Every structure is written in C-alpha cells, then in structure tokens.
Fold these 2 entries.
Entry 1:
Amino acid sequence: MNTPTDPTQAHSVHADRTSAAPPTAGADAPEDASATARPTLPPVVVWSQRLAVGSLLGLIVLSLFWELWLAPIRPGGSWLALKALPLCIPLAGLLRNRLYTFRWVSLVIWLYFIEGVVRAWGDPAPASWLAGVEIALCLVLFTACAIYVRLRLAAAKRLPTAIE
C-alpha cells in the first residue's frame, strides 16, 4: 500500500485511489501522472531544501577531510572519519523532499554541533578552526530544515482550502 509520507501529497494520492475510471492512454493523457499530481513547491521551500542538502554535503566533506588529511587526531588519519557515514543516511531523503527526514535531521545534527563546540574549545589551532566551520554548517543545516518543515506544514494546511 502506498501511503503518503508528507501532508502535501495526501490529497493527490487519495484522489488517485478513489477515481473509478483508469487513466486512458489517449492524446490528452499526461505521460507522467506523478508529475502532474504533485503540487509545486514555493521558491523559498526549494531554496531551503537546496541549502540543507548543500550544508549536509559540506559536513560530509569537512568530516572526511578533517579526520583524514587536514587535522587528524593521529598522524595518517583516524577512525573518527567514520562520523561522516551517519551523515550520508539522510541525503536521499533530503533530495526527495521527505518531510520526515528534514524533521529528524534537525534533531540529529545537534550531536555534530556539540562535537564541534567541544573540539573548538579543546583542540589546537587548525582543528579548532575546522570545528568552527562544523558549528556554522550545523547551524545552517538546522535553520534550513526548520524553515523547510515550517513552510511545508503551512502549505499543507492551505492545500484543502485551495481545492474546495
């Protein structure tokens, strides 16, 4: 059973399930029905999604370069570079505009923020600068996720009144 993962798609999925006539393959039928069923997102929502993806990619790259080449804890790199792996998990959900992914990323990112704060105060100069970059990227990612969730939920509330 295909259930919608975000509120903005709930109406279009429900309408597809309740229609009695199957789609016809005539000249007036769209080639891709899913492209016409989804509402277009406002530009601010698209911008916040791109900002969230960009800052997440920045955190992944920073984590790898930091722990392997720029300022590793041990010479030659450290196992701490594996902290980039959990950041790869939500990337697909952010790229697909999954509202649930934006919500939980905004909570998980605080672990990386805390790591950045601790290392900014405790590590020597090159690592503390990289920790400052990590802190900034975490704040950007959190803000972008919060904006995205807030605007998508506001758009979902307006959706039923726009159709009636």
Entry 2:
Amino acid sequence: MEPLIGFAATTLVLRLLGRVRFARFNAWRPSMRGGLSVMFAMTGVVHFVPGYRESMVAMVPPVLPWPEALVAATGVLELAGAVGLWVGPFRRAAAVCLALLMLAMFPANIYATLNGIEFNGDSPEPLWIRTLIEVVWIGAAIAVATEPARPTEPAHDRDVDEEDESARKEAEPIG
C-alpha cells in the first residue's frame, strides 16, 4: 500500500504546485509522471532491501528460473524507468516499458495472493485490491506515455521575443 500512497501523494502535491507556482505540473499527466517516478523508485529500491527482497523472491512463480536474478533485474528496470520518465527523449518509451513491466510482473502478485505469501511479514492484499491498484498504475503509465510534448520554449517567452523583434525593426533607420 505504501507505493500507492507515494504515487497518490506525489501526484497530488505536484498538481497543487502546478496550480500555484510551477506551470510544468499544471496538468495531470506531468504530475502523474512524478507520482510514477516516486513509486517506481520506492519499489525498485525495495528489490534490494533485506527482508523485502526475500519476500519478492518467494513471490516468483516456481515455473520461472532464477528468481533471485529476476527480482534483481526487475528492480533495476524499475529504477531505470523511474529515471527515464524524466529524460525527454526516453520519457514515452520509459512509460510504455514500465506499463509492460507491470503486466509482466502481475502474475507474481497473483501467485503470491493465491498462495498466501507474506510480504515482509504482511499478509498479501486481496487479489481484487491488488488488481485495482495495478490498473491505476498501468493507466497512469499509459497516460504519461501519451502526454503531449511540451514546447521547447514557453509561449510567453515567444511573445516577448516577437515584441522585441518588432520594436527593434521599428527603431532601425530606413535605408
């Protein structure tokens, strides 16, 4: 539940900041990008924390080989995706890859729930709750992947530059 709280709190704080000060976050998609980034940073780090790591290894269905390596790899991918969400040329690809990663990892959540595997001593969430949370995250990743590109130069700055250019031309001597 902590990743959901981190996602929701970060998204809401960034959206609020967008309304009062930082225009870049004055829309839901950029704010959700921040929320996803925080959530994936949290979950990615946990892949390497003793206690949590062992719980994640136990969640890997037995049909998959090398559960320790899979947990490490998915942790690295989550951390890379959290960073990639902020790197302009990789933003969309990172969001799409994170959505696909969540789909690929969801069977481990199903396996853990159906087999009563505890997560660092906590009982697994009911499958319907886990599924709803997953739908929220995948939906947010898709929304971020379809976020319109920001102009490289704010509209206000373009207007000022055009006014400066026209004033300069008016002041030039003719001839």
